[in-house]
Amino acid sequence: MPDQQVTQAGSQTLSRGIRLLEILASSDRNLSIDELAAELKVHRSVAYRLLRTLEDHGLIVRDGAGRITLGAGMAALAAGVSRDLQSAALPELTEVANELGMTCLLAVQRDGDEAVTLVSSAPRKSVAVVSYRPGHRHPITRGGPGKAILLELPESAWPADMTDELRAEIEESRARGYAHSRDEVVPSLWSVAVPLVLPDQPPASIAVIHVSLPRPEAEIAARLKVAADNVQRAYGV
Length: 237
Prior knowledge:
By secondary structure, the protein is an alpha+beta fold. About 45% of the residues lie in helices and about 20% in strands. The strands form two sheets. Strands 5-4-3-8-7-6 form a six-stranded antiparallel sheet. A two-stranded antiparallel sheet has the order 1-2. It is globular. The mean pLDDT is about 85.
């Protein structure tokens, strides 16, 4: 019994540590310890101990105001995730980003109901550059990247809480071949996205995000489809 209790406590600590990293990855700003504790629903002292351990491993760092953000250690870990897919996608994402002047990203489905940014590229020259870090996650039912993933999933694999309005929107998006969104994940941001299907990889999408759309949606989507085709070829499909 004592061994079982130790195992359960260790699993809970690990789970909380992972959840803290997920919260930081999905945030568009650095967070305080109090904010993280509230998100995690634990006492501040518990969050502090978890953060100290993560800090010791270089997975989180503190800014000048003591707020928390992901550290360089996370980048080292992320570099090994789907390395082949990242290598195949990054040149295309960079080309699209620079051509359209919009941040371009590749998102994958995670845990059935979330879209997670695997890799992204910001344009070299743009009046306003939108940062969308790898690891950023949001519900698959919100935002262009998530909705584009839904386009390739059978309805039986859709989240159970999808509304009739959203189901109709996905069917509409399927008919035109791309998904779009505005103000759904980050306020004021537009997104256009297309599905990306690769063997032995989770359902994915390629998307662009910006504070405005420099070209018509259909034209942007057509460029993203070319990029998706190129990624498939580079991946060996």
